[in-house]
Batch of 4 targets.
Target 1
Amino acid sequence: MQRRTPNDRHLFYLVALAITAILMLTPLSAYAESGDDNGESGEEPSDSGASTTDEGGEPTSEEAPAGEQPAPPQVSPAAPASEPASEPASEPATEPASAPAPAPPPAKPEPAAVGYKKLAINGRVQARFSYENSDGAPRENEAQFSIPRARIKLKGHAFDQRVAFVLEVDFGKGSVSLKDAVVDFNIIDRMLMVQVGQFKRPFSRQQLTSSGKLQFVERAITDKHFKGGRDLGVMLHSHRKLPFEYAVGVFNGSGDKAQLDGEVSLDPSTGKGEITSGKFSNVPKLISPMIVARFGWHSNGFNGYTESDYKGSDFGIGIGGGVMLEFDADDDADSAIRAGIDYALAVRGLSSTGGVYVATAQNGKGFGDQDFDSVGFHVQAGYVIKGKVEPAVRYARLMRAGSDGASQEILAGVNVFFHGHNLKWSTDFGVLTEEAHGDDSVDFRTRSQVELAF
């Protein structure tokens, strides 16, 4: 048998030791790299020793160092007993199977099916310049830049496609206010849905149309007078994209604007006030229930809750009506009834919307003691030229009972669509007339606004 020199034996032992270390470390590194992002282990680590050793644990021909192949065995009884073994790979230390694989960590529970993958984030910013010349002696002038709306909206589904949520916050006008906080349960395939939280009362079409999808910079003067807006409550409704829609809700009657429920003391030297008791809130101590209902119909596929037909759609029309019953919980004769009907139509770039509204006010001890309070209407129309530029006009009139007189709004405007309602430039100008006690006042106004929505 051919003898190895001491240097040859040492080199052979070092190679065998290195192979053994690689075999022992490879399963650990493979396991460490197999976990997913949630910390849960993946597949069991493979037997990496199979790629570097044969079934008997001997180094393969690819792993044996070049020039160190052992000679064929020869029978030599004269070999001394002290001769070192010629097969060091058969030692127990070189057996890769002797290194136990580490046990995988216990699996973590599946996370709830809600998170960023099911969350949509939308935003809208409106930057505006406005100028108003008000009637007086002398006439007053106001001009300013403002950001009337800067909103962030989060919406998505939680745990199930039938549970939707919306959270919208407004940072415009230099303050922070909560606009929508809604949980919506889809009970029967968008035909029966239950919505709870703070959201818009289902009364008029123009109020239900987003402020980012209007034909003019602001809604008509009839919107605020007939109390379109948000409130806290619960509502049964169908999806608005269905041909027939309905909504019936019960609300606090306090709206979404925080008011002071307490007392304020004034410093006569400075004229500044200090809150001495109470706090700002839109949650009343005693609910003044407001019941609001709306019913409507739209032609197939027509979206009646967006103004301006910049897409040049085929003919579509929608009609609807709402009623609002405002009860008085404090017996101070503040109950009222409001009703209205509205429409929307669009065809090949031409669009028009409008509505007629009427209101009564309590004039006695009971809810049934109602007298006429006011009536109003608005109508507007526009035509989009080549999908980019839209001239539009609006006329609105509000007539009140008694000596309160009437108001009217006459506006002309133009929209330039860069990316539909998501990026547009809107400008309107006109007059607002107040008729009271036989004396008319005329205010001139112009507003120009750039809107970005995403």
Target 2
Amino acid sequence: MIKKKLMVRSEQGLHARPADLFVRTANRFESEITVSNLTSGSGPVNAKSILRVLALGVYKDHRIELSVEGNDEQEAAAAICRLIETNFKNHQKKEAA
């Protein structure tokens, strides 16, 4: 199992397009992936569910904890961490193309 604590710097937090990209990225992997909002104390929830991720209420500068367990946990954790750490910027451009 991999656990990572991350700071969400996106102006939208994990709402709207960032939440959609987060969930779509999580769904590319077989591993079980959960996310918690450490700032508000909510979660953990299934990171593959848009409704559950939105319900966490993750805003800009909130800390989250990502937990990934499964055969592709290394790749899944790396992809989601990269998404958060780049503020979804490179990924939004790819999605628009």
Target 3
Amino acid sequence: MEEMQVCKCCGKELPLSMYRSSRLGRFKTCKECTRKHQINAKLDKKIAKLKEKDATDARFLRLKDFTPRELMAELKRRGFKFTMEYVETHVINSKDIEI
């Protein structure tokens, strides 16, 4: 009869062949749980890298490149709480006015 071990992650009692081994002994989680953890860790790392890239890209944007609404959305995304008041300037040429 093959020896069994309980996985500390999923709680299933599985044969020792379902666990990876190292120089220090057997892993406490089964191969399936270990693989799931590796996949999740890889995805988390990828997401963190994308967020870092977005933050880096945002740092290079100049404030004058934003419309007022985009500026408010960007500041809110970064966690700022604010009340904003702004004035728009419109240029009207007298040639464009019909009498």
Target 4
Amino acid sequence: MIHVMLPVQYLRRARAHRVEPQKRLMLAVLQTVIDDFQRSSDGRPASAAAAREARGKARAYLASTDRTWPFSFENICEAIGLDAHSVRAQFDQTDAST
């Protein structure tokens, strides 16, 4: 039996291979920030201090409007199609309720 392979099965769009890995990395950065922001301590003092520090760094990253770094919060939101202001508002609501 002869198997036919269509071009769409082995060819990608010209730019797809360059854009996709960067967006995956941007999503991973954003997921790490979300995880750090939402991290709860397990009751041990060292872990509680580390969780507070991670949350503080995540809060500072989310609050920053600096666009000079390619992986800044503002640039990541723009690249993946999110409104940075709306995302910040969600985190502000979460922060206020805790």
